[in-house]
Amino acid sequence: MDQAEQIRCMKLLMHRLDLGINVDAGGAVVNPVEAYTCAKRAADEWRLMFQSYPQVMGLSGDLPEPGSFITSTELGKPLLLTRDRDGLFQAFLNVCTHRGTVLVQEERGKKFSFNCPFHGWGFSNSGDLVSVPKENHFGPVEKPCYNLVKLTAQEKHGLLWVHPEPGQTFDLDALLGDLGDDLDSWGFGKLSFGALETYQTPMNWKLAIDTFGETYHFPVLHKDTLGQDVYGNVQCYDIFENNHRMLLCSKAIDLFRDLPEQEWDLLAATIPVYYLFPNIQLIPSGRIPGRPKGEMSGATLVRVYPNKDNPHESFSQVSFYTNTEIPQDFREGISDRLAGFSEIIRDEDYKAAATCHAGATSGALQHFTFGRNEPALHHYHNTYNRVLGLDPLQSISN
């Protein structure tokens, strides 16, 4: 984010703090509880949002060098993501083209070639079939016809994007709009992978997304954790196509009030939270004292998935990354802080959200209500409804 935009956002946050006001969506809306419980809707979401839409599968640091690979099954099919010998990011169905065996069993590692564990057919990390054991016994194989099934993959702004359906393409610039330059400015490509945790939760996947959409709950749910360092119920909020940027207001913002604007630093004064449709929360971490202004110490990537078309189960893949350009002793401390932040998501946000799901299935109410101070919730669900061909959320006040 350029300095002028950082200053604009920080001034707006200070203004709202001083006046005791918040971002205003213009009115409250209601969302039917069946948006979280309907099996047909869950099947439509799985098809339209997770099978027919490009997905963020990680950051560039997940594939740090040629030969790196990661595998994934989050989208209901085995995927293999590689960085080939030329450093190019590639994606394939992780399926041997001989008899359909899952080719690579490991979750991540470094290999320039892969051999099927069933019959030993060998593939390069560019997806080419390069060897068939005992081909004179098997019969001649026209190898290019048996290359791995390729998926459209794009590496941009330090993120790894894949379309899960073979033969489908996407226009990333159009999907992100002006958010692309904003993402690019942080330098996510400099971050290295640290760890990944999986949280299984008895709730609809959108309830997990909802927990990231407002700070109204901070003084209550997070009163002993995040609420100690972050002002609740005040934020900046901007929409970019189906995506958004939300800035949580750190109490450290008050330290900048008497400093020249050229010394203001958004990462020290706020917690930026980027939402990338349909299921991604990307959170840059604050800078380290003594390091350059605007430099991230790390980031957290949260990928939320339904259990296919089951509306009552979901899981989150939470990955931590650290900046490779900062000293190792600082990086170790950052990893601990990122892990602590993830535990708050798991032990506070997700536990509360799971009880929301129990409430949704109880018959106690027909709608959830999103206040005028919760614009991200309006945006999430209106974008979902638009993709599904449904009406916008119903307004109940002005």
Number of helices: 11
> How are the strands of the largest sheet arranged?
13-19-18-17-16-15-14
Secondary-structure class? alpha+beta
So what's the overall shape?
globular
| Overall average residue pLDDT | 94
What's the CATH class label of the largest domain? Answer: Alpha Beta
What is the alpha-carbon Rg in Å? 22 Å
Named CATH topology of the largest domain: Naphthalene 1,2-dioxygenase Alpha Subunit, Chain A, domain 1
Approximate helicity band: 25-40%
Unreliable stretches (pLDDT < 50, length at least 5) are none
Task: Compile the SSE list and pairings.
Layout: H1 3-19, E1 29-32, H2 34-37, H3 39-51, E2 55-59, E3 68-72, E4 79-83, E5 89-93, E6 108-110, E7 113-115, E8 122-124, E9 129-131, H4 135-138, E10 150-151, E11 153-156, E12 159-162, H5 172-176, H6 179-186, E13 191-201, H7 205-210, H8 218-221, E14 230-240, E15 243-250, H9 266-269, E16 270-276, E17 280-284, E18 298-307, E19 310-323, H10 328-360, E20 367-370, H11 375-388, E21 394-395
Antiparallel strand pairs: 1-20, 1-21, 2-12, 3-4, 3-6, 4-5, 5-10, 7-8, 8-9, 11-12, 13-19, 14-15, 15-16, 16-17, 17-18, 18-19
Q: Can you walk me through this structure?
A:
- A 7-stranded antiparallel β-sheet has the order 13-19-18-17-16-15-14, with helices on both faces.
- The protein has 2 domains: 3-52 and 172-395, Alpha-Beta Complex (Naphthalene 1,2-dioxygenase Alpha Subunit, Chain A, domain 1), CATH 3.90.380; 55-162, 3-layer Sandwich (Rieske Iron-sulfur Protein), CATH 2.102.10.
- Strand 18 (298-307) and strand 19 form a beta hairpin.
- With 398 residues, it is α+β, with helices and mostly antiparallel strands.
- The mean pLDDT is 94.
- It is built from 11 helices and 21 strands.
- The chain has helices spanning 3-19, 34-37, 39-51, 135-138, 172-176, 179-186, 205-210, 218-221, 266-269, 328-360, 375-388, and strands at 29-32, 55-59, 68-72, 79-83, 89-93, 108-110, 113-115, 122-124, 129-131, 150-151, 153-156, 159-162, 191-201, 230-240, 243-250, 270-276, 280-284, 298-307, 310-323, 367-370, 394-395.
- It is globular and about 80 Å long.
- 28% of the residues lie in helices and 30% in strands.
